Amino acid sequence: MTKSFGSQNIWRDVSLTLPAGEVNALLGPSGTGKSVFLKTLIGLLHPEQGSVIIDGTDITQCSAKELYEIRKLFGVLFQDGALFGSMSLYDNIAFPLREHTKKKEDEIRRIVMDKVELVGLAGAEDKLPGEISGGMRKRAGLARALVLDPEIILCDEPDSGLDPVRTAYISQLLIDINAEIDATILIVTHNINIARTIPDNIGMLFRKELVMFGPREVLLTSEQPVVKQFLAGDRFGPIGMSEEKDEAVAAAEAAMQAAGISGGGTKDDFSEIIPQVQPNPDMPVRQASIRHRQNVLNIINDLPPNAQAAIRASIAEEDRRAMESPETSATLVAMANHQFDYPAGHGFQAYDGATEQISTAGMATAVIDAPTQVVETPTEEIVVTEEITAVTDEGQASSRE
Ligand SMILES: Nc1ncnc2c1ncn2[C@@H]1O[C@H](COP(=O)(O)OP(=O)(O)OP(=O)(O)O)[C@@H](O)[C@H]1O
């Protein structure tokens, strides 16, 4: 898509596919048009060129009636919460249910109070938006975004106005919601911690273009100066206070850096991938992580070497953690939709570089892609549910049932 306001071009040729059910983040310096992008996705703004295709319908071309129906698939948390100032939080949160459904008031009450509880606002439901803190307004906006069980959730800076602990709760909530209802989520954020730990995929807008969009490891290990500067939060680099810097400024900065002057950024190594936040134990397995792993393994050979190594390390780390305890080991088994049970004292080994994929019924696919994993299970607990194929020491395929 390309979007301008009058003669001011906001971004051009932005093209991406949000993988269904996955969690995505969009980063970018202030004013690069991230909020405009979200509003374009729901048809509140219209691109001059391009299309927004949702479930096969191009919402830039469809009728007003079709757009109205498609909007019901969305739950949107706007940057400022966008609550009606004259309505209580309860009525704000109930609004989409009253507007879009024929539900009776007692059912509406049940749903609203459930969401109020979910976002930690129990007891505040009768207050007006003007009587609560910015962070509470944000959480009320999220509750309202969730009442219709949306298939697509757009969150414009869910963390703004929240302290780090509340931010962690909101992030966890988004991951739990993704596990529970398999919604496709797009989070616009400046919060690097969210970007590092929450999304499956990350994109970045800069200089009117989408710099990149793909598995989180691609951006986090990127060598692009704009990405590195943004992640580090450093004033030295291509991103300036208002607009891009000219050569003279860049040269002056280089001299300051050479003289040991700090640009204020963190020295964190972002290529050290932090494990993604997992759903709470009472949540179902996040189907998105299964699909995402498969999607990533399909394209891994086309990614930069740093990203490839980071992805392999992430997968190995995920599997290692999952196998550490019997409980999470069960999760791994469920995640892969495949039994990894072997007689006590025996192990299963899969070799890095010899990825073997096992297709199972439906959409789930098990992938063995870890550098040597051993799971020991008492013989009486062995359950083999399907034929599997493994790669042996000699690199030959062998099957067993
Ligand atoms: N309705 C509008 N009419 C004209 N210009 C607009 C409109 N909405 C946004 N803009 C302009 O589009 C540009 C991008 O704004 P946007 O709010 O999308 O940025 P952003 O990346 O979300 O910024 P931030 O990170 O600071 O929230 C800004 O220059 C803004 O002034």
From TrEMBL:
<dbReference type="InterPro" id="IPR017871">
    <property type="entry name" value="ABC_transporter-like_CS"/>
</dbReference>
<dbReference type="InterPro" id="IPR027417">
    <property type="entry name" value="P-loop_NTPase"/>
</dbReference>
<dbReference type="InterPro" id="IPR003593">
    <property type="entry name" value="AAA+_ATPase"/>
</dbReference>
<dbReference type="InterPro" id="IPR003439">
    <property type="entry name" value="ABC_transporter-like_ATP-bd"/>
</dbReference>
<keyword id="KW-0547">Nucleotide-binding</keyword>
<feature type="domain" description="ABC transporter">
    <location>
        <begin position="2"/>
        <end position="232"/>
    </location>
</feature>
<keyword id="KW-0067">ATP-binding</keyword>
<dbReference type="GO" id="GO:0005524">
    <property type="term" value="F:ATP binding"/>
</dbReference>
<keyword id="KW-0813">Transport</keyword>
<protein>
    <submittedName>
        <fullName>ABC transporter ATP-binding protein MceG</fullName>
    </submittedName>
</protein>
<dbReference type="Pfam" id="PF00005">
    <property type="entry name" value="ABC_tran"/>
</dbReference>
